[in-house]
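Quick one:
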Amino acid sequence: MDQLRQSQPSRSTEKVIGKFSLLATALLAALLNVSVAAEVNYQLDLAQVKQQQAEITMRLTNVEKGPVTIVMASASPGRYARHDFAKNIFDLRAFDAEAKPLQLTRTSAATWQVVADSKDIVVKYRLFADHADGTYSQIDRRHAHLNIPATFMFAPAFAAEPVNLSIVNKPQQWRVASQLTQVQGQWRAKNLDDFMDSPLEISEHQWLSFTQASHGNNYQINIALHHQGTVAQGEHLKTLVQAFVKEQQAIFGDLPDFAGKQYTFLADYLPAVASDGMEHRNSTVVTDDRSLLQAEYAQVETMSHEFFHAWNVERIRPKSLQPFDFTKTNMSDLLWYAEGFTNYYGKLALKRSGYFSQDAYFEQVLKALNRTLQAPGRRFHGPAGMSQQAVFVDAGVSVDPTDYGNNYLSYYTYGEVVALGLDLQLRVKFGRSLDQLMRQMWVLYGKTEIPYDATDLQKQLAAVSGDAKFAERFFNEQVNQSQLPDFKALFAELGLRLQLAEPNKAFAGGVNFRNEGAALLLASRPLVNSAWANAGVGIGDTLLQLGEYPISTEQDVQLALKNAKPGEKLTLKYQQKGEVIVTELVLSQDPKLTLVVDEQATAEQLKRRNDWLNSQAVSLAVM
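Output:
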């Protein structure tokens, strides 16, 4: 340093220093003229958890003068129906930077307008929250379980700005679990979309984690487990999760590049929470009112489904859901793939990981297959059309009756059966598999995060199968229309027989019942062409007699049907809107199917079955 002081700069050096001085002066002048960057800062005050309330403050910085629109979301990522979250906020106020009140004008059910006269706008309100699932929020003595769109208002004009969240007055023992980045005591999101996609679990929870390697990176998979069970039960759950994570990674070849190299399950398994699961980019919410022991760890089935979404829907994303609109319903005709194929793989991964035995997995397959084959709604829509119904049925609320049992089939179930059929067709006809299609979609549309449409999906099916005509027929007949493949023939090629479970059992049609005192009423609309429907019985009707048996309980109905045969006619007496009606209930054959292992299966058939059902995670060791 002394040498530097003693040396004299040359004339050329002085010129360079002079140029840098001028540049620094210019930069300083420019900086003085640049306004402070806009930002959104939230404060969540949990002082009133006993009242199931929170006070929330939103501060918008560097606001341009004029009207600013403030919104409470009406939609939430992962849900497709409308949800009016604004109904649970109250005591709404607005202030300027000096705490002077500003006029707040409500312009619609979920939007307000405030006129800015300073650089900052502060909006304060209170939230009531008492429904813990993947869509809503719950605040009580146990936790603050927060879905962001159900909790925080936002300003659309600030959607691109960074978001900071501070949490105050939380109980001392509570910790925060979230995919948000923690920076100096605050939780930070890149922008509104990032913030809205980042649920929070604030509670005294068990924290579990394991490391999963993927292409030279180590990812930490976390479980924030809020439950009333033991530490050992949580550890057992972790082993089940670790097993299916490996199987799902094997399907795609690698893990998504999770932010911060972490992914977190936010699990609430407590009384008075709703059973649900909701995917997010780097985390998921899973809820159940049963303990792990009560459910025999069945919660892992939802966890597997939601983790598969980290690839399929969070990154392999339909164009119709991009960008997500927080102010209205988001309709897509590709939910049969986004949700239904995820349903299929959530269960298949659990079979490959050892959670499901072969018999237990076949029960899962048959449950979806029987429901789909028997669904009258397939007359009206194929999987694409059923997907578009999500805006009405995905936890949407209405008070008027519907006839969904006869004109709708869940795109989860329908899509799961379509995935099953496509997987079997690829294996039997082409020596390929659905795994290869999923990986192709991941490489071309997931890793690159290029949204896809049905044409893109058809193109990749043609590439994987090597048969463009097959891909075209599949979409025309099995996606846009209601046709299904010949499952009996397909299963036979895997050494399995698909057959009637009880061919001699009589069937009246699946309906639900409820008791009102000593009276038994129909609680659901009968399926079209079922014995109940053909007899004219409707929802709310009171059953009086079936065959020789007076009816007052559901057990009486089962007893009357127990020894009946297909084709038999039983006298039915029921009351409908004050009128007693006597008619006949004409029974049919029980259509329920079962799978039986063919003990004479060939080696080729056994290989197909094993390739379908057995673990694929061994492939990770050689990648």
